[in-house]
Specification:
4 helices, single chain
């Protein structure tokens, strides 16, 4: 379950960065009062922790994938 939560947070962060790159619109900063606001910084940190967690997914043994190959 933790893997799915981390992946969902990473997707939200990726979409936010895409919006920053394409439209120069940071949704998190816009919603919570700027990128320096405490809540925005906390959310950025949570997304960063989720990204670090998802690195472990690259090295996890997945029997479903292994059985199909």
């Amino acid at each position: 379950m933790l893997d799915r939560i981390a992946l969902a947070l990473l997707i939200v962060g990726g979409v936010n960065w895409g919006l920053v790159g394409i439209f120069q619109l940071d949704i998190i900063a816009w919603l919570f009062g700027g990128s320096a606001a405490v809540i925005s910084r906390v959310l950025y940190i949570i997304v960063a922790i989720a990204a670090v967690w998802c690195i472990s997914l690259l090295f996890k043994h997945n029997s479903l994938i292994e059985s199909e190959v």
